[in-house]
Input
Amino acid sequence: MESAVFRRVFRLPFGVPVLASSLAYAALGPTAVLAAMPTCGGDTGNHFLGNGRSPSGVKGVYGEIEHLGQSLCTQSATKVGSWVLSWVSLDGPSTSGLDIYQVGYARCPQPVPAGPGSCPWNNGAAYFFAWYGRETGPCGQKYESGFLNLGSGPSGTYHFFQVSKIGNYYKIYIDEVFTGQQRIAWEIDDCWPGVSGVEWQNETLDRNDQGGGRVANPKGFHNNQYQDASGWHNANRALNSACDANSFPAHWHCVNSGSVARNFESWDDRVP
Amino acid sequence: VSVALPSKLPNGDIPPVSISKPSAGAADAFVKCHIGDQFSVEQVAGMGQVLSTKELLHYVPLTGREREFKEDVPAWVIQFRGDIPMRSGVWTDPVCIVTPDYFGFYATGPTKDYNAGTVETPEPPPSPPDKSLPPLVP
Output
């Protein structure tokens, strides 16, 4: 039932069945070889590589993200924060970035014995995740949902991620299927308040985590779109231009691509 | 396992949670609050189930505006101690609360964001908590 709702909402603007493109991508084959990354630098921070838009009236975001093996920085005796994330998001108006509802891939390091880890470990394997946060405000103290582990899918292929308002809920879909993750509309409409932007991003917690794919196989974010009251629209970035965000341009690269400029390819030149 | 009392406040009438033999509800709260796959029991100062969300403000410094707790339902509460790495930064002494419909972490202590290092203090509660959660027991 949920998937049918999704299909109706999503497929109207396109005409090309998205499942067909999924199967085509699957033929590209896996690229799960992991490279050794430099020692974690201790520059713990949210580092981004990707795009964002702030169209008025936005209420949905969609992207097809390639599932590639990506390496974490190499920990030394003193453990520091580290993660590799790739996601699409709806954003609220806070300048801190905490107002965000997102879905994508996460890979996390093993927690320090008897100490906290950066994010849920999942035995080192990448997994689908969702996450929601909000700043202190009309709905009380600052809040984070924590990483929600939504399972995993095959690597070397593309998976489809969507966050959008359907009825009285903001819902998360992976590969066209409702994940069960939803926020009742007041949480976003009242607590943020309201959606002010969308993003398609790679993110690391240490700059020596791998940002994007590798030189020989950049990580694709394809068919990036946002939704407003009139329907779905292409991300529409300038063809061959650099992506909006790049926290580590010395080694990270991101170029907008595709005939309608709704794709981008991203890679870390430390990984051949 | 350290089982030091989290504070000098009197314990409420809440039974302690066993680390080795948690009830089904406590085990569910462990999972939803990532005790085990991200955080360890050493970071837990106290834990228990309040029978009504109306009791939450006796135990943790929320604002009272948290809409998740408008319904009068039982809630599991995990009080963390120390600096806890979160998605947006390091939170000191946060709490994780689990109700039948909601769960997540609330910044009831100072927070320091990763990028700018900005430190924020939480909004003061209407009145300070007057009870503490019991520490975990082996």
